[in-house]
Amino acid sequence: MNPANYLYLSALLFTIGAAGVLIRRNAIVVFMCVELMLNACNLAFVTFSRLHGNLDGQVIAFFTMVVAAAEVVVGLAIIVSIFRSRHSASVDDANLMKL
Amino acid sequence: MSASSVHSLWTTAAPVADKFPTPHIEYAQLSPVLIVLGAAALGVLVEAFLPRRSRYTAQVALAALGLAAAFAAIVALADKGYGTTKAHIAAMGAVAVDGPALFLQGTILLVGFVAIFTFAERRLDPRAHGNQVDSFAAQGSAVPGSDQEKAAVRAGFTSTEVFPLLMFAVGGMLIFPAANDLLTLFVALEVFSLPLYILCALARRNRLMSQEAAVKYFLLGAFSSAFLLFGIALLYGYAGTVSYSGISSVIDGTAPMNPALADTTGNDALLLIGLAMVAMGLLFKVGAVPFHMWTPDVYQGAPTPVTGFMASATKVAAFGALLRLLYVVLPGMRWDWRPVMWGVAILTMLAGAVIAVTQTDVKRLLAYSSIAHAGFILAGVIATTPDGISSVLFYLAAYSFVTLGAFAVVTLVRDAGGEATHLSRWAGLGRRSPLVAAVFAVFLLAFAGIPLTSGFAGKFAVFTAAAQGGAMPLVIVGVISSAIAAFFYIRVIVLMFFSEPKPDGPTVAVPSLMTSTAIAVGVAVTLVLGLAPQYFLDLADKAGIFVR
């Protein structure tokens, strides 16, 4: 199979993730969409690694996974803390500061 | 002039590495980063094993010692010539040790060192149940206003975790401008961003606003770093490597070709879209329009000491990374990126200055002013001349201390609810506390770029470099937006000195030696860089050569 198809898939996943970040209102779902974007990047890295015949891309995919895991730790902590004080995880409710 | 001869204006060639080199880490050259990250890890252990009452002293001492030792290591490296003649690439091509890297790392370390003083200040907030408290929440996990929080305050808890978090952030920022491949760039970005997200959420007063700032910063920051990562993936796809020198030689057409590379380099879309997405990620971090939306909210909501640190050090690190990317990797593409950067710089300067005029909150005002300053610095970046590099380095050093000092002054003006940041509350401050108002006026004049302050020297250097680099229209826009910006800085000064103080106005808290030192350092650097900038300009000039 032509490896370029994986690139199309990765671009598609990235776009779905980016669109989700922009249109979904729940902070947890927004965050999941960001994770989808990171995983789309991983797919692109691995595919390019195959195309070029070197291992850099596969190694980078591991680094991305570790970074994504660290981001989950920090992100969920922040989202849970704001949820507990407001009883809402909607990003529209976070509007104390305007202009 | 050919692409490679232009390239040699601001880069020197590094010795070519062997094809399969044995892993080799130059610990001595990497020591500043290692010291800071080591101190951060020790700080986590202190948090885990020391009794609560002795943590504060231990953490402050550890952080200050770590940063001072790392700065000494930077000075030693620069003294040995690693900034000039011995500049090279360390850690298997991952980290560059050269003039711009050492200069910016030194700046970040000094900024971090001064920031520790503002973090450790414990005399501004009134005592809670007899315990001295700082600007940070008693317990980050406790719900604001809950019984758990009240119990934590009564027990005298403080979040001493902020010091290791600060150190991790500084560690990431040290790597960021020195990163010499795109993977290191991404990892460094996350290493300094994640602690900053947490620090933003930890304000003692206005917890809800602080948590909101953290959520906004985190979601937008993660979104932008996903873009950066996809950009890295595309550049890797184009060049088959993530190392800066590798990508630049593929762009210049000097890299050895193979069939796979011939296939991907035939596809300019990979390069152009990848470049755009990586630039997007970096412009988000510097707060350039149109990626600036997070700046005012995060600056306003975060605890003020954190805002000061974030506003100055993040900008230094992110501009360092942007400079290296544009000057080392992409000079062959400068006809593609310069027009875009022109647009971004013009938008940033004008939008920052114009929107700042309408602001009524001191912290938001400073946030928009930092956006405008990002535009001025971008004008220097666009110059693509050796002078462009050194003027940006100088501007960053000058700007970061002014910002740090200005936010430290903001922590002093207080009323019953904590800091009084609404501008109307600052009316007549100069009558009531002339010294504090005068110091803040010095910082505002430096932001405005009035002669005899560091702001003037910095702006002059940047605009001169931009004009010589053929960006005269940018300079004109820059001067116009400086004039607009001067209007609202002067308005604040007039408000402080020439209006009647309100009877229920805020009081100026008397700080301990810590914050006083931080503000004094800010004033001293502002005046020294303004009155006698030549030594530092020469230093920046000497440091202005990237290693390739």
Automatic annotation (TrEMBL), chain A:
Cellular component, GO annotation: NADH dehydrogenase complex; plasma membrane
A single MF term (Gene Ontology): quinone binding
Catalyzed reaction equations: a quinone + NADH + 5 H(+)(in) = a quinol + NAD(+) + 4 H(+)(out)
Cellular localization per UniProt: Cell membrane; Membrane
EC number of this enzyme: 7.1.1.-
Keywords in alphabetical order: Cell membrane, Membrane, NAD, Quinone, Translocase, Transmembrane, Transmembrane helix, Transport
Pfam family, one: Oxidored_q2
Gene3D superfamilies, A to Z: 1.10.287.3510
Superkingdom per UniProt: Bacteria
Database matches in InterPro entries: NADH_UbQ_OxRdtase_chain4L/K, NUOK/Mnh_C1-like
Main location: membrane
Gene Ontology terms describing biological process: ATP synthesis coupled electron transport
Family: Belongs to the complex I subunit 4L family.
NCBIfam families assigned to the protein according to its UniProt record, in alphabetical order: PRK05715.1-2, PRK05715.1-3, PRK05715.1-5
Functional description taken from the UniProt entry: NDH-1 shuttles electrons from NADH, via FMN and iron-sulfur (Fe-S) centers, to quinones in the respiratory chain. The immediate electron acceptor for the enzyme in this species is believed to be a menaquinone. Couples the redox reaction to proton translocation (for every two electrons transferred, four hydrogen ions are translocated across the cytoplasmic membrane), and thus conserves the redox energy in a proton gradient.
Quaternary structure and interacting proteins, as annotated: NDH-1 is composed of 14 different subunits. Subunits NuoA, H, J, K, L, M, N constitute the membrane sector of the complex.
Protein name in the entry: NADH-quinone oxidoreductase subunit K
Species name: Actinacidiphila cocklensis
Upper classification of the organism: Bacteria, Bacillati, Actinomycetota, Actinomycetes, Kitasatosporales
UniProtKB/TrEMBL annotation, chain B:
Keyword Nucleotide-binding in record: no
Topology with respect to the bilayer: Multi-pass membrane protein
Parts forming coiled coils: none
Membrane-spanning parts: 30-50, 57-78, 102-120, 162-179, 185-203, 215-239, 269-294, 306-327, 339-358, 365-386, 392-413, 434-454, 474-498, 510-532
Keyword Transmembrane helix: yes
InterPro entries found in the cross-reference section: NADH-Q_OxRdtase_suN/2, ND/Mrp_TM
Gene Ontology cellular component terms for the protein in this record: endomembrane system; plasma membrane
Domain NADH:quinone oxidoreductase/Mrp antiporter transmembrane: 179-484
EC number: 7.1.1.-
Superkingdom assignment: Bacteria
GO BP terms: ATP synthesis coupled electron transport
Keyword field: Cell membrane, Membrane, NAD, Quinone, Translocase, Transmembrane, Transmembrane helix, Transport
Subcellular location: Cell membrane; Endomembrane system; Membrane
Catalytic reaction annotation: a quinone + NADH + 5 H(+)(in) = a quinol + NAD(+) + 4 H(+)(out)
One annotated GO molecular function: NADH dehydrogenase (ubiquinone) activity
Main location: membrane
PANTHER family the record matches: NADH DEHYDROGENASE
Assembly behavior: NDH-1 is composed of 14 different subunits. Subunits NuoA, H, J, K, L, M, N constitute the membrane sector of the complex.
Function as written in the Swiss-Prot or TrEMBL entry: NDH-1 shuttles electrons from NADH, via FMN and iron-sulfur (Fe-S) centers, to quinones in the respiratory chain. The immediate electron acceptor for the enzyme in this species is believed to be a menaquinone. Couples the redox reaction to proton translocation (for every two electrons transferred, four hydrogen ions are translocated across the cytoplasmic membrane), and thus conserves the redox energy in a proton gradient.
Family as reported in the entry's similarity comment: Belongs to the complex I subunit 2 family.
Protein name per Swiss-Prot or TrEMBL: NADH-quinone oxidoreductase subunit N
Originating organism: Actinacidiphila bryophytorum
Taxonomic lineage from the root: Bacteria, Bacillati, Actinomycetota, Actinomycetes, Kitasatosporales
Gene that encodes the chain: nuoN
